[in-house]
Here is the input.
Amino acid sequence: MATSGSAQLPAEAFSSAASSLAVTKVAPRHSALVRVTHWITTFCFFALLVTGIEIAISHPRFYWGETGTVLTKPLFQLPIPSSRRLVPTGYGYVLPDQNGWSRALHFESAWVAVLTGLLYVISGLFTGHFRRHLLPSTADFSWRAVLTSFAKPFRLERPSAAEASSYNVLQRLTYLFVIFVLFPLVIWSGLDMSLAFASAFPWSVTLLGGRQSARTIHFFVSLALVLFLFVHVAMVCLAGFWSRTGAMITGRIGTRKEHT
Amino acid sequence: MINLSRRRLIVSGLAATAGASGLAVAARLAQKHGLISPDHGGIYGIGETLTYASQRLLTRHSLAREFPRSGISPRPFPNELAPLTEEFKRVQAGGFADWRLSVDGMVHQPGSFSMADLRSYPSRSHITEIACEEGWSYIAEWTGVPLSHVLQLVGVQPQARYVVYVSMEPDTWDSIDMADALHPQTLLCYGMNGSDLPVPHGGPLRMRLPRQVGYKNKKFITHLTVTDNLKRFGKGLGCVDAEYGYAWYAGI
Here is the structure.
């Protein structure tokens, strides 16, 4: 695959090899801290997703405001069976209860994810990771740059060599949105469901519109994170799954191309 | 790996040592200050302990949110109930006149209280939300005698750390630490929305802990034991639910 790519575009392949060689010597594509926190977060995200689904199955109804039970009209109900007999689902069967371990693993992974995230954000601020790699430059904000970065993946166009060592404006904005909007919001809305947390920080529940609103927000932000995951993996595949995944594991990129 | 310099090796070594000893000190301090939950074993133990310890440090004295009367849910939802036992039905037929709450363990004066006794003590009402671990919740006005008042009557010994509460339902018991037992909103609840606590909601007597989820709010309470050690109750995990994988501490 790498051979045919460089055969079609020898000039670009050469410059890519040269630049990535230079990049390898100066600094890795991703720092060790970014790589380690990335994979811990990945691991936790899957644990949180599976257990989150399990917990949602025990009451697949969502409400807005402070309260809501099976006796209340829901905002919406997921068309899935439930693990509780008293939830009206329209299905003639009840799934087994998995909430015990699901809750335990959900909270434990949340702890690991939040602590890892804190380490990532604090070190990112100190090392200039966000400023250098994720904050778009003012030139990036031209409509042309934004539109090009947006349209490229839809034309199934592989990213240019320059993009192997840097992010385009759309990627930068997406990562910043995930790191500084979606993750804080999913943590906040999750914590608000804790009765003890709510007793210490009642205003945080009020700000989100009540306990059930927090639960509904938690659901939708999780959905947005899953959507991000799909797009993220699709883009990694488009750019070259092994090269990009390898870069996130070893820190180096494009080593295979250099040998051709 | 090739670039592993001596300086880097020393720095990482020092950091690892500091981290490990920091963890050891934290564990010792947590043990000393009662921040380790009885079900701290197993793969989820670290998460349980982190949640319990941090919420104890953050919320020891915080009060559960109270709501205006207009916030009361019109139709409180009683969760699924196991079939009532013959013994329960017998006491129920007598209008719960024979219902007793006995208290023993690390107390100066073990006691036994009738519903009339409990109703004669100073009562407290709060309009708070009860939330099930499944996700649903409703608001009601709960009335009862603060558990701290009953504990004061029997005289808790200073080394006591937990209160075990037992339901008339078979194989149903639970426990809370002293922070929750002495919390002003923790009620031995006998009234709901201005009338007697209905049986489906745990009447005549329910443990009401507005800072922990529904399953800690056990129904049909008949017995309390004050203790400093949960090891000798059931499998030693602090509650029967922990034996089925549910956390002992459920403030989250």
About this structure: The domain at 67-244 of chain B is CATH 3.90.420.10 (Sulfite Oxidase; Chain A, domain 2). Chain B has one domain: 67-244.
